[in-house]
Amino acid sequence: MILKDLKVFLQNVWKNNVLINTILKVNYNFDIIFIQEPSWMTLKTISSSENSEGIPLLGVPSHLNWLTFTKELCSSNDFPRVLVYINIKLVFLRFSLQKDIFNHRDILLVSFFNNNSVFWILNVYSDSSHSALKYLKNTEVNILNLLIMTGDFNIRDNIWDPSFPHHSVISDDLMTIVDSFNLELSFPTNHISTKYLDSNSGSNSVIDLMFLQNGSTELNNHQIHPDLHLSLDYAPLCYDCY
Fold this sequence. Notes:
Elements: E1 7-12, H1 17-26, E2 32-36, E3 41-46, E4 55-59, E5 66-69, E6 82-87, E7 96-97, E8 107-114, E9 117-125, H2 131-138, E10 146-152, H3 169-180, E11 183-185, E12 208-213, E13 223-224, E14 237-240
Parallel strand pairs: 1-2, 9-10
Antiparallel strand pairs: 1-14, 2-6, 3-4, 5-6, 7-8, 8-9, 10-12, 11-12, 13-14
Helix pairs in contact: 2-3
C-alpha cells in the first residue's frame, strides 16, 4: 500500500525558481513535493494578432519526472502561491486537482485513488494577513480521507515551537480548521527551526507545519532534514511517513 512508504518534501522557495529546479532534480526519491511562494515566469511568447510582439505565456518550473499541479492564472495580480509536484512513478494513482472545492490562490487540494478509495492532500500558504486560513474557516466542505495538510502557515506559537513563549489567537482558527478535517498536528522527531533569522524577531522560528489524518497508523511520523537545506532562509521539511 503506497501510504506506508509515502515520502513528502515541503519548502517555501521565496520566489526562487532556480531552487525549485534544483529540488525537482535532486529529490526523485520523494513522492510528493509541496512548494510555497514560487515565482511565475514567462515560459515562451505566443504570437497574437492583437500584439505584434506576442503574448507572454506565464508558468512555473516543470520537470519530466514530475506532474505539476497548480491553480490556473486568472490575472497578473493574482498569482497562485502554492504548487504540488507528484512523482511520475505514481501516475497510476490518478492524481487530480480539485479546484472546484477551494477557490483560493494560496490553497491547493489534490485527490488520488488508492485501493479503490479516494484520498486528499492539501497545500497551504498563509500570508501575513492569513487570508487562506480565513477562507478555510469560512468555507464548509465535507472531505473524507484528507491525509495531509501542510505548508507555510506564518504563525509563531509555543504549541509547536517550545522556544517561543507566546500563544497566537490565529492558532485557534488554524486548530479549528484542523479539527474540522479530522487531522492532528504532527510533531517532528527532531525539534529544529524551519525558518532562519526571522526578520521580525531576529530569531529562528517554526512556521512550516504538518497535519496528518487523526489516528492514522500509516502516516504517523515525520522529521525535518536540515542536511537538505537549499536556501538561506527556509529549511525543507521532509516527511518519511510510515
